[in-house]
């Protein structure tokens, strides 16, 4: 991710074997880098096929897709590309140390940095569906969401290209602002959804099965948001107070690795909420009447 993927020192003459822990100062404690490499391989082995499956699932079930699936599909595209960059990333870090490949890596990291934009769109879409259902009925047209997705892609590419060409310092403040804003919007939306769903069953012994499924879904989603995005939100404002070793050898590597895990967690969450029976029918090309996904 952003502050971890610093380009190599291009003033060095001749080729040298890159340090797998990136900086010489990290030699005394490279354990965070071990975690980083494990996460990268995990994302490639599980995250890439999971995101590919999500894209295929949504593309095959166009007529049954929920409104949020437009954003989920675009999120899966970014995450799949990021996971697919793992062999390039590892080869360049461990052997090539090529300046041009570092630029490509920073492009992929820039794209990953901005995936919270799509996650925020998903949360806002579910927020409108549950908290403001009347307004939501007037904005169900997916062309609106396609237009929003196109705007988000413009922002993602602008950010990623800027990071790739001008370097990480040029986008650090933007990244911090993006994470903070997205985090608080997502938390607000999900807490509002949970509050409305809880009120809907006040005085009742049981919850409607559809609302029960929606309630469980947003609780899980909120937990994942906190797990993936709370560490950088809590730590990054104080980054300047850390020593070089703490920042580049321990904290940054760890928190960005945790954020990278969202590339696998997000598609698995989507797949897990898909009805198994209908999903297997879809795998067999027999999904004529699958149950519609809930728009929350």
From TrEMBL:
<feature type="transmembrane region" description="Helical">
    <location>
        <begin position="33"/>
        <end position="59"/>
    </location>
</feature>
<keyword id="KW-0812">Transmembrane</keyword>
<keyword id="KW-0807">Transducer</keyword>
<dbReference type="GO" id="GO:0007200">
    <property type="term" value="P:phospholipase C-activating G protein-coupled receptor signaling pathway"/>
</dbReference>
<keyword id="KW-0297">G-protein coupled receptor</keyword>
<dbReference type="GO" id="GO:0004930">
    <property type="term" value="F:G protein-coupled receptor activity"/>
</dbReference>
<dbReference type="InterPro" id="IPR017452">
    <property type="entry name" value="GPCR_Rhodpsn_7TM"/>
</dbReference>
<feature type="transmembrane region" description="Helical">
    <location>
        <begin position="116"/>
        <end position="136"/>
    </location>
</feature>
<keyword id="KW-0472">Membrane</keyword>
<keyword id="KW-0325">Glycoprotein</keyword>
<protein>
    <recommendedName>
        <fullName>G-protein coupled receptors family 1 profile domain-containing protein</fullName>
    </recommendedName>
</protein>
<feature type="transmembrane region" description="Helical">
    <location>
        <begin position="174"/>
        <end position="197"/>
    </location>
</feature>
<feature type="transmembrane region" description="Helical">
    <location>
        <begin position="218"/>
        <end position="239"/>
    </location>
</feature>
<keyword id="KW-1133">Transmembrane helix</keyword>
<feature type="domain" description="G-protein coupled receptors family 1 profile">
    <location>
        <begin position="50"/>
        <end position="270"/>
    </location>
</feature>
<dbReference type="InterPro" id="IPR000276">
    <property type="entry name" value="GPCR_Rhodpsn"/>
</dbReference>
<feature type="transmembrane region" description="Helical">
    <location>
        <begin position="148"/>
        <end position="168"/>
    </location>
</feature>
<dbReference type="GO" id="GO:0005886">
    <property type="term" value="C:plasma membrane"/>
</dbReference>
<dbReference type="GO" id="GO:0035025">
    <property type="term" value="P:positive regulation of Rho protein signal transduction"/>
</dbReference>
<feature type="transmembrane region" description="Helical">
    <location>
        <begin position="71"/>
        <end position="96"/>
    </location>
</feature>
<keyword id="KW-0675">Receptor</keyword>
<dbReference type="Pfam" id="PF00001">
    <property type="entry name" value="7tm_1"/>
</dbReference>
């Amino acid at each position: 991710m952003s502050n971890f993927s610093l380009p190599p020192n291009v003033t060095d003459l001749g080729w040298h074997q890159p340090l797998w822990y990136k900086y010489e100062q990290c030699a005394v404690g490279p354990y965070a880098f071990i975690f980083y490499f494990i996460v990268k391989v995990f994302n490639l082995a599980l995250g890439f096929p999971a995101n590919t499956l999500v894209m295929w699932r949504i593309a095959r079930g166009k007529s049954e897709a929920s409104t949020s699936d437009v954003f989920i599909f675009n999120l899966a595209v970014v995450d799949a590309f990021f996971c697919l960059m793992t062999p390039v990333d590892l080869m360049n870090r461990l052997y090539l140390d090529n300046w041009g490949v570092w630029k490509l890596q920073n492009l992929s990291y820039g794209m990953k940095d901005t995936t919270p934009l799509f996650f925020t769109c998903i949360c806002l879409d579910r927020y409108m569906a549950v908290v403001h259902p009347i307004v939501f009925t007037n904005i169900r047209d997916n062309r609106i969401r396609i237009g929003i997705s196109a705007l988000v892609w413009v922002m993602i590419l602008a950010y990623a290209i800027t990071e790739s060409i001008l370097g990480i310092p040029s986008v650090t403040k933007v990244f911090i602002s993006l994470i903070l804003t997205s985090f608080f919007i997502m938390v607000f939306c999900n807490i509002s959804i949970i509050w409305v769903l809880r009120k809907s069953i006040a005085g009742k012994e049981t919850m409607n099965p559809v609302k029960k499924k929606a309630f469980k879904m947003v609780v899980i989603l909120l937990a994942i948001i906190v797990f993936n995005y709370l560490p950088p939100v809590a730590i990054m404002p104080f980054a300047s107070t850390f020593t070089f070793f703490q920042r580049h050898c321990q904290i940054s590597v760890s928190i960005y690795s945790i954020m990278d895990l969202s590339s696998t967690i997000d598609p698995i969450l989507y797949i897990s909420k898909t009805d198994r029976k209908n999903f297997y029918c879809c795998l067999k090309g027999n999904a004529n009447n699958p149950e519609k996904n809930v728009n929350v």
